[in-house]
Write a structure and sequence with these properties.
The structure is a single chain. The protein has 4 helices and 7 strands. The protein has helices at residues 22-32, 37-40, 42-46, 57-70; strands at residues 3-4, 13-19, 78-86, 95-106, 111-120, 125-134, 137-138. It has a single domain (3-138), classed as Thiol Ester Dehydrase, Chain A (Roll). It is elongated. Strands 2-4-5-6-3 form a 5-stranded antiparallel beta sheet, with helices on one face. Strands 1-7 form a two-stranded antiparallel ribbon. With 142 residues, the chain is of the alpha+beta class.
Length: 142
């Protein structure tokens, strides 16, 4: 029987960082269909809550998926659920870091509970959440 990789332990983590560009926001609007003026219209955004354009929250959250599928737990991970709390805005030019940390192995269901957090360059938390994934399995017998 295949099972969760034995090398995954609570506290293990990985991160992915990226500086948000104008192109990222425009391309994400095109892919997602979210052309909210808060994201794509500088003049309209000046009169909004943040006084300037804000990057899509889901653009920032998507970097959690980048960590899951490429770094930790890694290729083959299946994303089952995600809870997110959007805490602070992300602006064009901000460098954000998505970090995923193992919280608990749920071995009988082959699941992994993870803490997911996205921070800005000054360590301000912009997104906080929790994910459940099916991690890649190892082929070692128990």
């Amino acid at each position: 029987m295949m099972r969760i990789k034995e090398q995954i332990h609570p506290g293990d983590s990985a991160s992915f960082s990226k500086t948000i560009t104008e192109s990222d926001v425009v391309l994400f609007a095109g892919v997602s269909g979210d052309f909210n003026p808060a994201h794509v219209d500088e003049e309209s955004a000046k009169n909004g809550v943040f006084g300037q354009r804000v990057a899509h929250g889901m653009l920032s959250a998507s970097f959690i998926s980048a960590v899951l599928g490429t770094r930790f737990p890694g290729p083959g991970t299946i994303y089952l659920s995600q809870q997110l709390k959007f805490v602070k805005p992300v602006f064009i030019g901000d460098t954000i870091t998505a970090t995923v940390t193992a919280v608990e192995q749920i071995s009988e269901k082959n699941r992994l509970k993870l803490h997911t957090i996205v921070t800005k360059q000054d360590s301000t938390v912009v997104i906080d959440g929790e994910a459940i994934v099916i991690p890649p399995r190892c082929n070692n017998p128990p």
